[in-house]
Amino acid sequence: MTTRQIKVYQDLMGENDRWAQQTRELLAKHQVEMVNLIGSPGCGKTALLERLADRQGQDLCFAVLEGDIETINDAQRLARKNIVVSQLLTKGSCHLEAKLVHYALRDLPLAELDLVIVENVGNLVCPAEFDIGEHRKIAMLSVTEGEDKPLKYPLLFREARAAVVSKIDLLPHLTFDLDACVANIRRINSEIPLFQLSSTSGAGVTEFIDWLCTVPSSAEQ
Ligand SMILES: Nc1nc2c(ncn2[C@@H]2O[C@H](COP(=O)(O)OP(=O)(O)OP(=O)(O)O)[C@@H](O)[C@H]2O)c(=O)[nH]1
Ligand SMILES: [Mg+2]
């Protein structure tokens, strides 16, 4: 009998998952919660984080890891609001990987923080597939994108622990069907809390931040 060589290809995400696990251990050690904010380009992720600056130091001590392919624009916007922020550049990749997040996290003053928010690269697909060690993902969609998006990009909405529909101040100018959007999110994930807000007018922002502040600590999970 001849012996044949068998090639074995392992899960490409194996290394990523190991870094994600190390991140979870680091967060647990410091009792810091980490959320992964995911949404399409321009849906208003950074604008919402700018709004969070008002609560910094009151009932929330947080830092942000800003994910982008290029530029430090978003980190500069948050730094202007006095938010502790680091910029993570993927230089071409459409999502953040766990190793980069882990290195950036290690440089944050974790002992002083309750929460780290990662703004992932603007994209409804790839970031949902990569575990970066977060405790929860938040799915964000703006009203200019079409109410069918939760059905077209279901993985993110299935995995998310909350969904945000943003830019509701624009509704009077659009044909966007908010009720249909909510129903579509519910078809994918019937349980998750759903926030409708506008970072421009401030409508609905407090409810979302209140939810962020009351998330259980990682130690309790
Ligand atoms: N009308 C309106 N415009 C908004 C709102 N939130 C954000 N914008 C605008 O939408 C554009 C994109 O906002 P960003 O906060 O940069 O969006 P982002 O999701 O961080 O974008 P990327 O990081 O590039 O993916 C900017 O011109 C914002 O001023 C909102 O609630 N209402
Ligand atoms: Mg941004």
UniProtKB/TrEMBL annotation:
One of its GO terms (molecular function) is GTPase activity. InterPro entries: CobW/HypB/UreG_nucleotide-bd, Hyd_mat_HypB, P-loop_NTPase. One of its GO terms (biological process) is protein maturation. Keywords: GTP-binding, Hydrolase, Metal-binding, Nickel, Nucleotide-binding, Zinc. Residues 35-195 form the CobW/HypB/UreG nucleotide-binding domain. Belongs to the SIMIBI class G3E GTPase family. HypB/HupM subfamily. NCBIfam families: hypB (TIGR00073). This is Hydrogenase nickel incorporation protein HypB. It comes from Candidatus Electrothrix aarhusensis.
